[in-house]
Amino acid sequence: MRRIALTLIGLAGIGLAGCGYSTGDRALSGGLLGAGAGAGVSALTGGNVATGALIGGGVGAVGGAVTSGRDVNLGRPAWR
Fold it and tell me: Most distant CA pair in the chain: distance in Å?
């Protein structure tokens, strides 16, 4: 069950990491979205929510930093 949860966190983080134009914007938004997804999955599966948020945030931030704004672009981030 844990392996499935971690896989879902990773996929959600990478899939949702496409917000913003610059690498920093993409890493920040990916980290925030990944942390939310990780906390949600952990809560649903009975795991530690803080650990899920940390793992999801890390995966999301990396996913946002390594993807290109030309490949996936969901527009201008809300904080800009």
Answer: 38
- Evaluate whether residue 30 is within a structural domain: yes
User: Is 57 within 8 Å of 38 (Cβ atoms)?
Assistant: yes
Q: Write the DSSP string, 13-65.
A: HHHT---SSSHHHHHHHHHHHHHHHHHHHHHHHTS-HHHHHHHHHHHHHHHHH
Asked whether residue 46 is domain-assigned, the answer is: yes
**Averaging pLDDT over each range in 2-6, 40-44, 57-61, which range is the top one?**
57-61
**Domain tally, the chain:** 1
Residue 47, pLDDT > 70, answer yes
